[in-house]
Amino acid sequence: MRKILVTGGTIFVSRYAAEYFAGKGDEVYVLNRNHHPQPKGTILIEADRHQLGDVLRQYAFDAVLDVTAYTGEDVSDLLDALEYSRENFKDYVLISSSAVYPETAPQPFTESQQTGLNKYWGSYGTNKIDAEEELRKRVPDAYILRPPYLYGPMNDVYREAFVFECADADRKFYLPKKGDMKLQFFHVRDLCRCMEAILDKHPLNHIFNVGNAESITIREWVEQCYRAAGHTAAYVEVHQDINQREYFSFYDYEYQLDVSRQWEMIDTTVPLEEGLKESYFWYCGHKNEVERKGYIEYIRRIL
């Protein structure tokens, strides 16, 4: 049994990760401000990560899974509170993002490429770069995971949930152009499997792109979401010169991660069809937890 600290623990990835490792029999502590229900089987450390004082100094962890670090300050404040040494924690895993790669870099993106500003992700990506750099400076043997779009149960982001909502209402789906743009996904359980493998195997590489090996077109993704909800998709193609984020969940930006290093940790990934069925099952029981955006209203008014 490991003693694990998960930052956050109340929403999507951090909540799923906390319950995943608790379900493995680990002693899981979650660090948050206690504004939401806590994940099952975990121990709450109630605090703001920017005002920790000596809250964490009494603890020693086998691993820190930092799911909610978005800036260099996020990382430095947590490390200051832990008084970094091998007596405070053994492993540190940071969940970063594919947004650290400039959109102008050669694709598929590899871990050895230079990070930099991506015009689609803006400060979100550059802040993630700062978090990575702060961690590598202070904990050189820490691990960093860079996923693409994450999906799965507990996802409160209005992505697959938006499509499920359209499917359940038997709406035609408004598709950017012909729907040929490709997206790369990764199931949240596979992300947790990668973290678990890092703690078990301690691979030689310390930065990993993670994701499904194959990308999928928007049209194919919508079809699979409708199918998971028990419906068949019909489309309206949108060819107007408008920002597709007004009516669709993703930027007009196609990219591909090279995830060949990932196979050092896991040798399979959840099939997208299976993962979307899990997502839909969760969505049906938690519709009020989804952070909705005004896509449907925009479609009704403008399209």
Provide structural commentary.
The chain is α/β, with parallel strands linked by helices. The chain folds into two domains: 3-150 and 187-209, NAD(P)-binding Rossmann-like Domain (Rossmann fold); 157-183 and 215-254 and 271-302, UDP-galactose 4-epimerase, domain 1. The protein is 31% helix and 18% strand. It contains eight helices and 13 strands. It has helices spanning 12-23, 72-82, 123-138, 160-168, 188-201, 218-228, 272-285, 295-302, and strands spanning 3-7, 27-32, 42-46, 61-66, 89-95, 143-146, 149-151, 173-176, 182-183, 185-187, 207-209, 216-217, 235-238. The protein has a seven-stranded parallel beta sheet with strand order 3-2-1-4-5-6-11, covered by helices on one side. Strands 7-10 form a two-stranded parallel ribbon. Helix 1 links the parallel strand 1 (3-7) and strand 2. Helix 1 (12-23) packs across helix 5, helix 2 (72-82) runs parallel beside helix 3 and helix 4 packs across helix 6 (218-228). The protein is globular and about 60 Å long. The termini are far apart.
Task: Identify the notable features of this structure and list them briefly.
2 domains, alpha/beta, 303 residues, 8 helices, globular, Rossmann fold, UDP-galactose 4-epimerase, domain 1
What's the short version?
The protein is built from eight helices and 13 strands. It has about 300 residues and is an alpha/beta fold. α1 crosses α5 and α2 runs parallel beside α3.
Order of helices and strands: EHEEEHEHEEHEEEHEEHEHH
- CATH class of the largest domain, named Alpha Beta
Low-confidence stretches: none
Q: What class, by secondary structure content?
A: alpha/beta
Report the β-strand fraction as a percent range. Answer: 15-25%
Please, what is the CATH homologous superfamily of the largest domain? NAD(P)-binding Rossmann-like Domain
